[in-house]
Every structure is written in C-alpha cells, then in structure tokens.
Amino acid sequence: MKLFDVYPLFPVNIVKGQGCNVWDENGQEYLDLYGGHAVISVGHAHPHYVEAVSRQVATLGFYSNSVINKLQQQVAERLGAFSGYEDYQFFMINSGAEANENALKLASFHTGKTRVLSFSHSFHGRTSLAVEVTNNPKIIAPINANGHVTYIPWGDANAADAELKKGDVCAVIVEGIQGVGGIQVPTDEFFRSLRKSCTENGAVLILDEIQSGYGRSGKFFAHQYTGIKPDMITVAKGIANGLPCAGLLISPEFEPVYGQLGTTFGGNHLACAAALAVLDIIEGEGLVENAAKVGQYLIDEISKIKGPKEVRGRGLMIGMEFEEPIKDLRRSLLFDEHVFTGVSGTNVIRLLPPLCLSQAQADQFLECYSKVLAK
Question: Which CATH fold topology does 14-46+288-374 show?
C-alpha cells in the first residue's frame, strides 16, 4: 500500500525538534518559523511537556468518556481562569474541524435555524459543515454543498447586519485573525458590530480561534483585543503542542443535554496531560507576553526591509504579502537558509513560530530573509 498522494511535499524528513529548531535525517538544522501550522505553541520537546506526557502514557493513556476524567475538569478550570472565561463550559474533541462542527451543531440546536454566515477567504476545516463554511469551492465536495452558508465580504459589518436582520441566521462564524486567508486582522469595530447584530437578531456568534488563539496574537484569544465576548470559541492547534486535541468554550446560556454531543477520543487522558503541560509552560514562562513583544519586533523590523508590499498581523501570527508569487522566495529560505515558513495563496508568507521564539532567533530570521531578498 502507498500513501494517498494529496500533499505536495518538500524533500525534507524532519526527525528531531528542540525549542524553535528542527533537524532532518541528515543532521541539518532549521529555524522553525511555522510551528507545523501554528501547532507547536511551547516549542519542540519542551522538558516539562515531555515529562508530563511520558508520565501520563505510562500510567493511563485512554479511557472512555463514560467515566469521570478529572484531568478534563482540570483543563477546563485552568483554561477558564487563564483565558478569562471562568463562567463558560468546555467540551473536548480532537481537531479544529471537529470543534467547528460541534459549535455549528450546538448553535443549530440552540436556535432551531440552519443558515450560517461566513466570510470571504475563510477557513474552518475540511469536514462536512466545517468545509461548507470554508470559502474555498475547490475543497467543498458536492455532498458538502448543502446551501446552508452565505458568504459575506471580509470586514463588511453592514452586509452581515443586513443578512442577520432577515431573522433566519443560526450562527455567524469568524476567525479571530484569518490564517489561510492571508493573516487578515479584523478591526475592532467589525467584531463589535457582529456581536451587537447577533445579539439583536438571535444568532450565535462563534469565534474560530483555532489558529489565532492560545496566546499566538499576544493576547490569549485574538478577539480579546476588541473587548467582545462570543457565544462559543473553538480552539485546537496550540492547545496540546502536537497531540491531537481541541475544544469548544460554550456560553453559560447553552444548556447541555445528555447525548447532544459526543466523542470517542476527545479529552482522553493523554491529550489532557499534554494540554495541562502547555498551560503550565505558557503561564510559567510568560509566552503570551513574549509573543506580543517578539511579534511586534518582527513586524516592525520586517516593515523596514524593502520587499513585501504589506506586513500585517498580531503577535507571532504574521503575514508578508508580496506583489509577486513567493514560491521561489520560500524555497530559498528553506533550502539555502534553512528556515521553515508557511504560505497563504501564492503571494503571502506566513510566520507562525513557537511562542518561545527569542529576539535573537527573530534576528536570525531577519538576517536570512535579507540575504534571500538580496539574491
């Protein structure tokens, strides 16, 4: 049997990681400015994380959600206190797409409605309704195109309000900062208008913080720059530093019903141990504050270098948009300077490093980036 060939792969086999660096099978070291799609939040192979996961898997890796799992309760309590959402409820699952599926399902249960508002260039996952609310027809199979979704231009609060006033909208789903869409940062006014319109028209506001949450933006959640509180928040990626884990923060206005939601693997003991270790490290090492500081430094310094037409982002979620395609630039960074970066579309480089990135490592990237531009 061979692998189903759906990923265009770089010819690099990464076998080891430490902090913000990874190594391939030939011993070549790379600076990791992508963190495996923003998944590596506290750095590769952090000793506290390794110890916590190793201890848990040696004790109990999994048992079902038919019994009490006090580790889940600990994750909920710690996350609520650290994020400022102590009064919300928490449901654990396995992936970002699954988090969004459950959020949309719960919103429909709550409102009895089926229409959802999403935004241009959005990305919310690749499964069922999560892919239907993703604004990319290339990945929406005919079986997923069920007519539930109205796409609104990004940032157009008036268009969203006009749709919400029709009275048939179940939910609005929006990213804290658009990731795949090119690191598009919303205005405070846009989010505040969405919150007001949803409240006035009986719709649920879902904040997809899968990529922009867990400290990446320089606040725990990117929407916290705006002062609003959504009805639900979806999290994944950085929650467990690479172990499959995700969650849904749910307003106290939602009443749980037995059997309404469910999962086999979600919130298992090993994933919970990883999630608790991540919170320990983020809080203990001040990684939210570090993301804000080093991220702003990077944005400021990149902006001084002639190259991209626009640099945007918050914290360590940075987009560099160029007039021309960046394929060759990204390949040169990887193969000549040994720096991993990400991409959005054809013209945007994405930087999503571990939140422990130091200013010295930021300077290392800036030096490599300058060298590539000068070629």
Answer: Aspartate Aminotransferase, domain 1 (3.90.1150)
